[in-house]
Amino acid sequence: MGKKLIVQKFGGSSVANVLRIQNAASRIAGCKKKGASIVVVVSALGNTTDKLIELANKINTNPSEREMDMLLSTGEQISVALLAMAIHKLGYEAISFTGAQVGIITDSAHTRARIIRINTDKIKEALKANKIVIVAGFQGVTLDQDITTLGRGGSDLTAVALAKELKADECEIYTDVKGIYTTDPKIEPKAKKIGLITYDEMLEMASLGAQVMQARSIEVAKKFDVPIHVRSSFEKDSGTWIIKEVKNMEEVVVSAVTLNKGESKITVSNVPDRPGIAAKIFNELAAKGVSVDMIVQNVSHLRSTDISFTVNKTEAKKALKVIKKAARNIGAGEILVDTDIARVSIVGVGMKSHPGVAAKMFGVLAKNKINIGMISTSNISISCIVQKKFAEVAVRALHDSFGLAK
Amino acid sequence: MGKKLIVQKFGGSSVANVLRIQNAASRIAGCKKKGASIVVVVSALGNTTDKLIELANKINTNPSEREMDMLLSTGEQISVALLAMAIHKLGYEAISFTGAQVGIITDSAHTRARIIRINTDKIKEALKANKIVIVAGFQGVTLDQDITTLGRGGSDLTAVALAKELKADECEIYTDVKGIYTTDPKIEPKAKKIGLITYDEMLEMASLGAQVMQARSIEVAKKFDVPIHVRSSFEKDSGTWIIKEVKNMEEVVVSAVTLNKGESKITVSNVPDRPGIAAKIFNELAAKGVSVDMIVQNVSHLRSTDISFTVNKTEAKKALKVIKKAARNIGAGEILVDTDIARVSIVGVGMKSHPGVAAKMFGVLAKNKINIGMISTSNISISCIVQKKFAEVAVRALHDSFGLAK
């Protein structure tokens, strides 16, 4: 069409009430006025989804996942209708669609469905008629016409997938923060908004606790090279662009410091040092659906070792039960649980080619008299488990030492 | 299948909160246990629909009807999911469907769509698998996959239409009253529950102000001879059966007394007594979308007449504006508006073959010193407009005189 095509996603906080819906409508109309073709993806209003889950749990503590999707998908349906009405009020043409109506076809894994394909005919037709197209995020439909949802943060995925499918020029993610920060500004007021960041760094940050965007959607954006612009619904300034490669990136060693206080550490001591023992432990956990995060094993004793791992706090009890049984079976020793931990991480594609980054991190923590409980490294991140009470001190010290406040 | 097939409809008050949803689930499960095949139609929880309308009006006082349907249809979708979860909790299999999913195909008259046809394949398949089928009331879908709604009380229509299409043995309408009463028990405590009533009487009562069932759904039930059982969600006793013909009906002259306080009377005086004048007035009203109810014309003066009619109170202002203009054009006289009126009616198929019913009605009102402002009669009803302050007295007197309290 020659026109610029933009996919805009508005999260729950950006449409939490009537005023915010009107604000979102104004932004969309403003963009339309400049001549772009616009497809908007919306989440459920504010905390609607949580409220619906609560209601369902009052009725059935173990609700059918198919019915859960039927229930939760109403949240986004309400949003798209109201946003369309708000845009009409401003004198622009807009039309709303559910995930089923636009043909976001998914598999039948209810509550965590994966998109198989998107039929964009309806959207293209509406765009051709110069309408602003509003699509319910987070939801799809199986080939059998059953309604599905894409899991927490699924609206991000809807937006990125639509941007890919429609070959959009950009995908804007509107949220209640100004963009991606070098660290949480609530912990370190000197935190700076990052102008450009790579998919890989963003993925790493998402998995390390940064909650601005859903990890799966970043994976899809990376795979299909969809440029993402994370920005505030309430400000004109541009936010953070998430893209493939950042020029001059070698100059920036560390891009951000992240913090995750949501994990607990479990240590199994005196694990017999035989092949297959670790597999046994973690197979049991997987079988019970417990996701394990960091795993560290030290050969520290004669013929036995200690294995430590972290799990989401909410799964600690379940994990402990599984592990106690497993420990008995394999003849391991004491089990230690530490809920008083925090994971502090530094992220940056630059560190790959800069030796000594890890050493510097450990040095900064040591200088601040912070003991390191576990260490884990990836290609572009280094994480340390520290005592929870030192978490904020650690974040500020690292943020400062790696020059992120500049 | 040989099994008895029952369509059960639960109105908003029957699923207004968690406890009531559980109560509805118990009733459904109890019926299933007895061996019937069951299709349930549900309305939105309590006053959900009104709340959504309110929300929409805050955003746009003149919302698009397509978007309104998109918005309102979420109410029933929430109900079906929760009800399915509640039934699962009781150990029974159930599956929910939206109007679109079961294929309730309508025209595209948004907010007041008419059902064109119903594809019952999905329902039949689920019934064959011994599942309780739960269908969202009030909604359908156009051939273009746009969501539509059927207008106020539309869930009744969904239930009756499904009962017809599935050739159900009966259609149960669960509500918060015990059935249809000889008159409003709030006005006359001696009012009795009616055991059997004909479609025609029920239709007449609905149009005269009784609000238990939507008139359109009774029309459909009559057309296709679907037996309806209106009953309480909270009691075991049977309620009122609405059927084609009631045996021994000739013994019952009057079945019920109804009251409607929602109308205003407009009188156009000194209307020239020429052909086509009345048509002119009522054409103007129709053109502006004002529904007129009772119309009475008396030839009372030389070459001129008075025309009185009633309209819904909410449309009185609009009607007056139209009428004032029309009166000037046709050279009529003064316009009088009376908002202080009530319509009291007696309904009964028996009155067709019993002369003197009207005379008796007028006599009862006269004996109670109640002046009659307008009179209108149909095949099976007689209505009198009286002063609003006498309405309850009139209802009680008629209820007593026609032996309905016995």
UniProtKB/TrEMBL annotation, chains A, B:
Reactions it catalyzes: L-aspartate + ATP = 4-phospho-L-aspartate + ADP
Annotated residues for binding of ATP: K9, F10, G11, G12, T175, D176, Y181
Protein name (database record): Aspartokinase
Gene Ontology molecular functions: aspartate kinase activity; ATP binding
Alphabetical keyword list: Amino-acid biosynthesis, ATP-binding, Kinase, Lysine biosynthesis, Nucleotide-binding, Transferase
Single GO cellular component term: cytosol
Domain ACT: residue ranges: 266-346
Binding-site positions, substrate: T49, E76
High-level lineage: Bacteria, Pseudomonadati, Candidatus Omnitrophota, Candidatus Sherwoodlollariibacterium
